[in-house]
Protein backbone atom coordinates (compact mmCIF):
# COMPACT_ATOMS: atom_id res chain seq x y z
CA UNK A 1 0.00 0.00 0.00
CA UNK A 2 2.19 2.80 -1.33
CA UNK A 3 2.49 6.40 -0.17
CA UNK A 4 2.84 9.67 -2.09
CA UNK A 5 6.34 10.67 -3.13
CA UNK A 6 7.67 14.03 -1.86
CA UNK A 7 7.36 15.54 -5.34
CA UNK A 8 3.61 14.80 -5.35
CA UNK A 9 3.08 16.18 -1.85
CA UNK A 10 1.94 19.82 -1.60
CA UNK A 11 1.15 19.76 2.11
CA UNK A 12 3.99 22.03 3.19
CA UNK A 13 2.92 24.68 0.68
CA UNK A 14 -0.64 24.45 2.02
CA UNK A 15 0.61 24.80 5.60
CA UNK A 16 2.62 27.89 4.63
CA UNK A 17 -0.50 29.43 3.11
CA UNK A 18 -2.55 28.73 6.25
CA UNK A 19 0.25 30.11 8.44
CA UNK A 20 0.45 33.36 6.46
CA UNK A 21 -3.32 33.75 6.66
CA UNK A 22 -3.35 33.11 10.42
CA UNK A 23 -0.58 35.61 11.14
CA UNK A 24 -2.21 38.25 8.93
CA UNK A 25 -5.57 37.89 10.71
CA UNK A 26 -3.93 38.17 14.13
CA UNK A 27 -2.26 41.43 13.04
CA UNK A 28 -5.60 42.73 11.83
CA UNK A 29 -7.30 41.71 15.07
CA UNK A 30 -4.73 43.63 17.10
CA UNK A 31 -5.21 46.63 14.82
CA UNK A 32 -8.97 46.40 15.51
CA UNK A 33 -8.31 46.78 19.22
CA UNK A 34 -8.01 43.22 20.46
CA UNK A 35 -5.53 42.82 23.30
CA UNK A 36 -5.01 39.14 22.39
CA UNK A 37 -6.03 36.88 19.51
CA UNK A 38 -5.66 33.30 18.36
CA UNK A 39 -6.41 31.49 15.12
CA UNK A 40 -6.91 27.81 14.27
CA UNK A 41 -7.04 26.98 10.56
CA UNK A 42 -7.29 23.57 8.93
CA UNK A 43 -7.74 21.68 5.68
CA UNK A 44 -8.97 18.08 5.82
CA UNK A 45 -9.13 15.86 2.74
CA UNK A 46 -10.27 12.29 2.40
CA UNK A 47 -11.69 9.41 0.41
CA UNK A 48 -14.28 7.02 1.81
CA UNK A 49 -15.57 3.93 -0.03
CA UNK A 50 -18.14 1.40 1.18
CA UNK A 51 -18.72 -1.92 -0.56
CA UNK A 52 -21.50 -4.40 0.25
CA UNK A 53 -22.05 -7.82 -1.31
CA UNK A 54 -19.56 -6.97 -4.03
CA UNK A 55 -21.33 -3.75 -5.06
CA UNK A 56 -20.25 -0.18 -4.42
CA UNK A 57 -22.64 1.49 -2.01
CA UNK A 58 -20.98 4.87 -1.48
CA UNK A 59 -17.96 6.83 -2.67
CA UNK A 60 -17.21 10.14 -0.97
CA UNK A 61 -14.41 12.58 -1.62
CA UNK A 62 -14.05 15.34 0.97
CA UNK A 63 -12.09 18.56 1.23
CA UNK A 64 -13.14 20.57 4.25
CA UNK A 65 -11.67 23.89 5.33
CA UNK A 66 -12.00 25.45 8.75
CA UNK A 67 -10.99 28.82 10.15
CA UNK A 68 -11.67 29.81 13.74
CA UNK A 69 -10.74 33.11 15.37
CA UNK A 70 -10.93 34.12 19.03
CA UNK A 71 -10.24 37.67 20.17
CA UNK A 72 -9.93 39.09 23.67
CA UNK A 73 -10.66 42.68 24.60
CA UNK A 74 -9.19 42.57 28.08
CA UNK A 75 -11.07 39.65 29.58
CA UNK A 76 -14.01 39.81 27.23
CA UNK A 77 -13.96 37.05 24.63
CA UNK A 78 -15.46 36.71 21.17
CA UNK A 79 -15.20 33.75 18.79
CA UNK A 80 -16.32 33.24 15.21
CA UNK A 81 -15.58 30.69 12.49
CA UNK A 82 -16.03 30.03 8.79
CA UNK A 83 -15.45 27.23 6.31
CA UNK A 84 -14.65 29.73 3.54
CA UNK A 85 -11.08 31.02 3.31
CA UNK A 86 -11.72 33.83 0.80
CA UNK A 87 -10.81 37.37 2.00
CA UNK A 88 -14.37 38.64 2.38
CA UNK A 89 -15.38 35.70 4.58
CA UNK A 90 -12.26 36.04 6.71
CA UNK A 91 -12.93 39.76 7.23
CA UNK A 92 -16.55 39.05 8.15
CA UNK A 93 -15.38 36.45 10.68
CA UNK A 94 -12.97 38.96 12.21
CA UNK A 95 -15.69 41.62 12.43
CA UNK A 96 -18.11 39.15 14.06
CA UNK A 97 -15.57 37.99 16.66
CA UNK A 98 -14.74 41.59 17.62
CA UNK A 99 -18.42 42.54 17.85
CA UNK A 100 -19.16 39.55 20.10
CA UNK A 101 -16.26 40.38 22.40
CA UNK A 102 -17.39 43.96 22.87
CA UNK A 103 -20.75 42.80 24.22
CA UNK A 104 -19.79 39.81 26.38
CA UNK A 105 -19.23 39.95 30.12
CA UNK A 106 -15.70 39.94 31.49
CA UNK A 107 -14.42 36.52 32.55
CA UNK A 108 -11.42 36.52 34.91
CA UNK A 109 -10.29 33.15 33.50
CA UNK A 110 -10.39 34.27 29.85
CA UNK A 111 -7.27 34.78 27.77
CA UNK A 112 -4.50 32.99 25.96
CA UNK A 113 -2.38 30.38 27.69
CA UNK A 114 0.77 31.66 29.42
CA UNK A 115 3.33 32.84 26.84
CA UNK A 116 6.12 31.08 28.72
CA UNK A 117 4.38 27.71 28.18
CA UNK A 118 4.39 27.87 24.36
CA UNK A 119 6.15 25.03 22.52
CA UNK A 120 9.55 25.98 21.11
CA UNK A 121 10.82 22.62 19.80
CA UNK A 122 8.98 20.78 17.03
CA UNK A 123 10.34 17.25 16.44
CA UNK A 124 8.99 15.14 13.59
CA UNK A 125 6.68 12.53 15.12
CA UNK A 126 6.26 10.58 11.83
CA UNK A 127 2.54 11.35 11.54
CA UNK A 128 2.41 12.22 7.83
CA UNK A 129 1.92 9.30 5.44
CA UNK A 130 -0.33 10.22 2.49
CA UNK A 131 -1.79 7.10 0.89
CA UNK A 132 -1.61 6.80 -2.88
CA UNK A 133 -4.95 5.08 -3.47
CA UNK A 134 -7.58 6.12 -5.99
CA UNK A 135 -11.28 5.29 -6.02
CA UNK A 136 -10.83 2.14 -8.11
CA UNK A 137 -8.08 0.90 -5.82
CA UNK A 138 -10.15 1.57 -2.69
CA UNK A 139 -13.13 -0.29 -4.20
CA UNK A 140 -10.94 -3.26 -5.11
CA UNK A 141 -9.47 -3.34 -1.58
CA UNK A 142 -12.95 -3.18 -0.03
CA UNK A 143 -14.08 -6.10 -2.18
CA UNK A 144 -11.01 -8.13 -1.19
CA UNK A 145 -11.74 -7.53 2.51
CA UNK A 146 -15.39 -8.48 2.15
CA UNK A 147 -14.61 -11.55 0.02
CA UNK A 148 -12.16 -12.77 2.66
CA UNK A 149 -14.82 -12.53 5.36
CA UNK A 150 -17.70 -13.95 3.32
CA UNK A 151 -15.64 -16.98 2.32
CA UNK A 152 -16.04 -18.45 5.82
CA UNK A 153 -18.67 -21.14 6.20
CA UNK A 154 -21.56 -19.86 8.29
CA UNK A 155 -21.30 -16.22 7.19
CA UNK A 156 -24.63 -15.52 5.52
CA UNK A 157 -24.63 -11.78 4.88
CA UNK A 158 -22.55 -8.63 5.04
CA UNK A 159 -23.09 -5.12 6.33
CA UNK A 160 -20.23 -4.02 4.13
CA UNK A 161 -16.55 -3.20 4.03
CA UNK A 162 -15.15 0.31 4.34
CA UNK A 163 -11.91 1.88 3.14
CA UNK A 164 -11.07 5.39 4.36
CA UNK A 165 -8.10 7.64 3.60
CA UNK A 166 -7.65 10.92 5.45
CA UNK A 167 -5.17 13.80 5.57
CA UNK A 168 -5.28 16.74 7.97
CA UNK A 169 -3.32 20.01 7.86
CA UNK A 170 -3.64 22.45 10.75
CA UNK A 171 -2.11 25.69 11.94
CA UNK A 172 -2.49 27.33 15.33
CA UNK A 173 -1.20 30.87 15.89
CA UNK A 174 -1.64 33.46 18.60
CA UNK A 175 -0.62 37.00 19.50
CA UNK A 176 2.20 35.74 21.75
CA UNK A 177 4.00 35.18 18.45
CA UNK A 178 3.44 31.43 18.56
CA UNK A 179 2.92 29.62 15.25
CA UNK A 180 2.55 25.85 15.17
CA UNK A 181 2.02 23.66 12.14
CA UNK A 182 0.68 20.09 12.23
CA UNK A 183 0.06 17.55 9.51
CA UNK A 184 -1.18 14.03 10.01
CA UNK A 185 -2.80 11.14 8.21
CA UNK A 186 -5.34 8.59 9.42
CA UNK A 187 -6.46 5.63 7.35
CA UNK A 188 -8.86 2.82 8.22
CA UNK A 189 -10.29 -0.47 6.98
CA UNK A 190 -13.41 -2.14 8.37
CA UNK A 191 -15.78 -5.04 7.80
CA UNK A 192 -19.10 -5.97 9.39
CA UNK A 193 -20.55 -9.45 8.84
CA UNK A 194 -23.68 -11.43 9.69
CA UNK A 195 -23.93 -15.13 10.52
CA UNK A 196 -27.23 -16.98 10.80
CA UNK A 197 -28.91 -20.34 11.23
CA UNK A 198 -32.32 -21.63 12.30
CA UNK A 199 -31.74 -20.40 15.85
CA UNK A 200 -30.97 -16.79 14.96
CA UNK A 201 -28.47 -14.30 13.59
CA UNK A 202 -25.44 -12.52 14.96
CA UNK A 203 -23.47 -9.54 13.74
CA UNK A 204 -19.91 -8.47 14.53
CA UNK A 205 -17.07 -6.55 12.91
CA UNK A 206 -13.39 -5.70 12.92
CA UNK A 207 -11.34 -2.73 11.79
CA UNK A 208 -7.83 -1.38 11.56
CA UNK A 209 -6.75 2.25 11.99
CA UNK A 210 -3.24 3.48 11.18
CA UNK A 211 -1.16 6.55 10.38
CA UNK A 212 0.58 4.78 7.49
CA UNK A 213 -1.20 2.41 5.11
CA UNK A 214 1.94 0.27 5.17
CA UNK A 215 1.02 -0.67 8.75
CA UNK A 216 -2.39 -2.17 7.87
CA UNK A 217 -3.03 -5.82 8.53
CA UNK A 218 -3.79 -7.65 5.27
CA UNK A 219 -7.25 -7.73 3.69
CA UNK A 220 -7.30 -11.47 4.32
CA UNK A 221 -6.42 -11.08 8.00
CA UNK A 222 -9.07 -8.42 8.54
CA UNK A 223 -11.74 -10.51 6.81
CA UNK A 224 -10.74 -13.58 8.81
CA UNK A 225 -10.87 -11.65 12.09
CA UNK A 226 -14.31 -10.19 11.38
CA UNK A 227 -15.66 -13.63 10.41
CA UNK A 228 -14.11 -15.32 13.44
CA UNK A 229 -15.67 -12.78 15.79
CA UNK A 230 -19.08 -13.05 14.12
CA UNK A 231 -19.18 -16.85 14.08
CA UNK A 232 -18.02 -17.05 17.69
CA UNK A 233 -21.21 -15.27 18.79
CA UNK A 234 -23.54 -17.94 17.40
CA UNK A 235 -25.60 -19.70 20.05
CA UNK A 236 -25.32 -16.82 22.51
CA UNK A 237 -27.08 -17.29 25.85
CA UNK A 238 -28.27 -15.08 28.65
CA UNK A 239 -26.89 -15.32 32.15
CA UNK A 240 -28.74 -15.42 35.43
CA UNK A 241 -28.19 -12.42 37.70
CA UNK A 242 -24.95 -12.80 39.66
CA UNK A 243 -21.76 -11.14 40.84
CA UNK A 244 -18.50 -12.30 39.29
CA UNK A 245 -15.09 -11.18 37.99
CA UNK A 246 -15.21 -9.32 34.66
CA UNK A 247 -12.50 -9.07 32.00
CA UNK A 248 -12.81 -6.19 29.52
CA UNK A 249 -11.26 -6.90 26.11
CA UNK A 250 -8.68 -4.23 25.12
CA UNK A 251 -10.96 -2.36 22.70
CA UNK A 252 -13.58 -2.11 25.47
CA UNK A 253 -11.12 -1.52 28.31
CA UNK A 254 -10.02 1.79 26.83
CA UNK A 255 -13.53 3.09 27.49
CA UNK A 256 -12.96 2.55 31.22
CA UNK A 257 -9.86 4.74 31.00
CA UNK A 258 -11.80 7.28 28.96
CA UNK A 259 -14.28 7.63 31.84
CA UNK A 260 -11.34 8.28 34.17
CA UNK A 261 -10.06 11.04 31.88
CA UNK A 262 -13.53 12.63 31.76
CA UNK A 263 -13.76 12.60 35.55
CA UNK A 264 -10.39 14.32 36.02
CA UNK A 265 -10.80 16.86 33.19
CA UNK A 266 -11.13 20.55 33.92
CA UNK A 267 -14.70 21.14 32.76
CA UNK A 268 -16.16 18.50 35.08
CA UNK A 269 -13.97 19.66 37.96
CA UNK A 270 -14.64 23.40 37.98
CA UNK A 271 -18.34 22.68 37.60
CA UNK A 272 -17.97 20.33 40.60
CA UNK A 273 -19.55 17.54 38.54
CA UNK A 274 -17.06 14.71 39.07
CA UNK A 275 -16.85 11.82 41.50
CA UNK A 276 -13.06 12.39 41.55
CA UNK A 277 -13.24 16.02 42.66
CA UNK A 278 -10.38 16.88 45.06
CA UNK A 279 -8.71 13.49 44.48
CA UNK A 280 -5.21 14.59 43.41
CA UNK A 281 -2.74 12.83 45.69
CA UNK A 282 -5.26 10.17 46.67
CA UNK A 283 -5.25 6.44 45.94
CA UNK A 284 -7.81 5.62 43.24
CA UNK A 285 -6.29 2.44 41.73
CA UNK A 286 -4.11 -0.44 42.99
CA UNK A 287 -0.58 0.53 44.04
CA UNK A 288 1.06 -1.46 41.20
CA UNK A 289 -0.81 0.42 38.46
CA UNK A 290 0.63 3.33 36.45
CA UNK A 291 -0.90 5.43 33.66
CA UNK A 292 1.35 7.83 31.77
CA UNK A 293 0.86 10.35 28.98
CA UNK A 294 3.32 9.95 26.09
CA UNK A 295 2.81 12.75 23.53
CA UNK A 296 5.89 11.98 21.45
CA UNK A 297 5.25 8.39 20.34
CA UNK A 298 6.19 7.99 16.67
CA UNK A 299 3.06 7.43 14.56
CA UNK A 300 0.95 7.62 17.73
CA UNK A 301 -2.77 8.16 17.29
CA UNK A 302 -2.69 11.05 19.78
CA UNK A 303 0.85 12.35 19.32
CA UNK A 304 1.47 16.09 19.32
CA UNK A 305 4.15 18.62 20.24
CA UNK A 306 1.67 21.25 21.46
CA UNK A 307 -1.94 21.34 22.60
CA UNK A 308 -4.86 23.33 21.17
CA UNK A 309 -3.51 26.51 22.84
CA UNK A 310 0.11 26.11 21.77
CA UNK A 311 1.25 24.86 25.20
CA UNK A 312 4.15 22.42 24.93
CA UNK A 313 3.18 18.83 25.69
CA UNK A 314 5.35 16.60 27.87
CA UNK A 315 5.61 13.09 29.21
CA UNK A 316 3.68 13.02 32.47
CA UNK A 317 2.14 10.55 34.91
CA UNK A 318 -1.62 10.61 35.40
CA UNK A 319 -1.76 7.65 37.81
CA UNK A 320 1.45 6.83 39.70
CA UNK A 321 1.43 3.70 41.87
CA UNK A 322 -2.36 3.97 41.96
CA UNK A 323 -2.37 7.62 43.07
CA UNK A 324 -3.97 10.36 40.93
CA UNK A 325 -0.98 12.60 40.12
CA UNK A 326 -2.76 15.49 38.42
CA UNK A 327 -5.82 16.66 36.56
CA UNK A 328 -6.24 17.08 32.78
CA UNK A 329 -6.39 20.83 32.16
CA UNK A 330 -6.27 23.55 29.54
CA UNK A 331 -5.52 27.12 30.59
CA UNK A 332 -9.16 28.18 31.12
CA UNK A 333 -10.10 25.29 33.41
CA UNK A 334 -6.75 25.62 35.18
CA UNK A 335 -7.44 29.26 36.01
CA UNK A 336 -10.93 28.40 37.21
CA UNK A 337 -9.34 25.90 39.61
CA UNK A 338 -6.42 28.07 40.63
CA UNK A 339 -3.98 25.67 38.94
CA UNK A 340 -1.76 25.59 35.82
CA UNK A 341 -2.46 24.09 32.42
CA UNK A 342 -1.23 20.52 31.99
CA UNK A 343 -0.94 20.96 28.21
CA UNK A 344 -4.22 19.15 27.58
CA UNK A 345 -6.37 21.79 25.90
CA UNK A 346 -8.13 19.74 23.25
CA UNK A 347 -7.60 16.42 25.03
CA UNK A 348 -5.10 13.83 26.10
CA UNK A 349 -2.03 12.76 24.08
CA UNK A 350 -1.36 8.99 24.01
CA UNK A 351 -2.35 7.70 27.42
CA UNK A 352 -0.50 4.45 28.14
CA UNK A 353 -1.84 2.05 30.78
CA UNK A 354 1.22 0.07 31.80
CA UNK A 355 0.58 -3.71 31.80
CA UNK A 356 0.85 -5.30 35.20
CA UNK A 357 -0.62 -7.46 37.96
CA UNK A 358 0.20 -8.31 41.51
CA UNK A 359 1.57 -11.85 41.26
CA UNK A 360 3.87 -11.89 38.20
CA UNK A 361 1.88 -14.47 36.17
CA UNK A 362 1.66 -14.10 32.34
CA UNK A 363 -0.65 -11.29 31.26
CA UNK A 364 -1.06 -11.83 27.53
CA UNK A 365 -4.70 -12.44 26.57
CA UNK A 366 -4.53 -16.17 27.31
CA UNK A 367 -2.90 -15.42 30.64
CA UNK A 368 -5.63 -12.89 31.44
CA UNK A 369 -8.31 -15.50 30.72
CA UNK A 370 -6.56 -17.90 33.09
CA UNK A 371 -6.37 -15.16 35.69
CA UNK A 372 -10.11 -14.50 35.22
CA UNK A 373 -10.76 -18.20 35.88
CA UNK A 374 -14.55 -18.30 35.88
CA UNK A 375 -16.35 -15.10 34.98
CA UNK A 376 -17.40 -12.78 32.16
CA UNK A 377 -15.32 -11.61 29.19
CA UNK A 378 -16.89 -8.41 27.78
CA UNK A 379 -16.36 -7.72 24.08
CA UNK A 380 -19.19 -5.24 23.47
CA UNK A 381 -20.94 -2.56 25.54
CA UNK A 382 -24.08 -0.62 24.67
CA UNK A 383 -25.90 2.42 26.01
CA UNK A 384 -24.78 5.54 27.81
CA UNK A 385 -25.35 4.59 31.44
CA UNK A 386 -22.23 6.16 32.92
CA UNK A 387 -22.35 9.14 35.30
CA UNK A 388 -19.22 11.22 35.75
CA UNK A 389 -20.95 12.96 38.65
CA UNK A 390 -21.62 9.89 40.80
CA UNK A 391 -19.42 7.26 39.14
CA UNK A 392 -22.40 4.96 38.62
CA UNK A 393 -21.81 2.54 35.71
CA UNK A 394 -24.57 0.45 34.12
CA UNK A 395 -24.39 -0.65 30.48
CA UNK A 396 -25.73 -3.34 28.22
CA UNK A 397 -23.08 -5.88 27.33
CA UNK A 398 -22.24 -8.98 25.32
CA UNK A 399 -19.26 -11.30 25.33
CA UNK A 400 -18.36 -14.77 26.58
CA UNK A 401 -18.73 -16.80 29.73
CA UNK A 402 -15.36 -18.20 30.79
CA UNK A 403 -14.86 -21.31 32.93
CA UNK A 404 -11.49 -22.41 34.31
CA UNK A 405 -9.69 -19.95 32.05
CA UNK A 406 -11.35 -21.21 28.84
CA UNK A 407 -14.13 -19.58 26.82
CA UNK A 408 -17.25 -21.71 27.38
CA UNK A 409 -20.01 -20.00 25.36
CA UNK A 410 -21.12 -16.57 24.06
CA UNK A 411 -23.52 -14.41 26.10
CA UNK A 412 -25.80 -11.52 25.18
CA UNK A 413 -28.64 -9.34 26.51
CA UNK A 414 -27.06 -8.71 29.90
CA UNK A 415 -26.30 -5.58 31.90
CA UNK A 416 -23.09 -5.01 33.83
CA UNK A 417 -23.16 -2.59 36.76
CA UNK A 418 -20.93 -1.16 39.50
CA UNK A 419 -19.49 2.18 40.57
CA UNK A 420 -16.39 3.44 38.77
CA UNK A 421 -14.76 4.23 42.10
CA UNK A 422 -15.02 0.54 43.08
CA UNK A 423 -14.15 -0.64 39.58
CA UNK A 424 -10.88 1.31 39.51
CA UNK A 425 -9.94 0.23 43.02
CA UNK A 426 -10.81 -3.37 42.11
CA UNK A 427 -8.57 -3.72 39.04
CA UNK A 428 -6.79 -7.06 39.39
CA UNK A 429 -4.61 -6.99 36.26
CA UNK A 430 -3.89 -5.09 33.03
CA UNK A 431 -2.92 -7.22 30.04
CA UNK A 432 0.02 -6.83 27.68
CA UNK A 433 -2.40 -7.32 24.73
CA UNK A 434 -2.43 -3.57 23.96
CA UNK A 435 -4.82 -2.31 21.28
CA UNK A 436 -2.83 0.27 19.22
CA UNK A 437 -5.81 1.72 17.33
CA UNK A 438 -6.52 4.56 19.76
CA UNK A 439 -4.82 7.37 21.68
CA UNK A 440 -5.69 5.40 24.84
CA UNK A 441 -3.28 2.46 24.82
CA UNK A 442 -4.33 -0.37 27.12
CA UNK A 443 -4.53 -4.12 27.16
CA UNK A 444 -7.43 -6.06 28.61
CA UNK A 445 -8.46 -5.04 32.13
CA UNK A 446 -9.61 -7.55 34.76
CA UNK A 447 -11.95 -6.34 37.51
CA UNK A 448 -12.42 -8.17 40.78
CA UNK A 449 -16.21 -8.05 40.65
CA UNK A 450 -19.27 -6.53 38.97
CA UNK A 451 -22.97 -7.22 39.10
CA UNK A 452 -24.38 -9.03 36.07
CA UNK A 453 -28.09 -8.53 35.51
CA UNK A 454 -29.60 -11.12 33.19
CA UNK A 455 -32.51 -13.50 33.37
UniProtKB/TrEMBL annotation:
Residues 241-454 form the Metalloprotease TldD/E C-terminal domain. GO terms for molecular function: metallopeptidase activity. Gene3D superfamilies: PmbA/TldD superfamily. Residues 129-233 form the Metalloprotease TldD/E central domain. It comes from the Bacteria. Its EC number is 3.4.24.-. Pfam families: PmbA_TldD_1st, PmbA_TldD_2nd, PmbA_TldD_3rd. Keywords: Hydrolase, Metalloprotease, Protease. Residues 37-101 form the Metalloprotease TldD/E N-terminal domain. PANTHER family: METALLOPROTEASE PMBA. Belongs to the peptidase U62 family. This is Metalloprotease PmbA. It comes from Dyella halodurans. The lineage of its organism: Bacteria, Pseudomonadati, Pseudomonadota, Gammaproteobacteria, Lysobacterales.
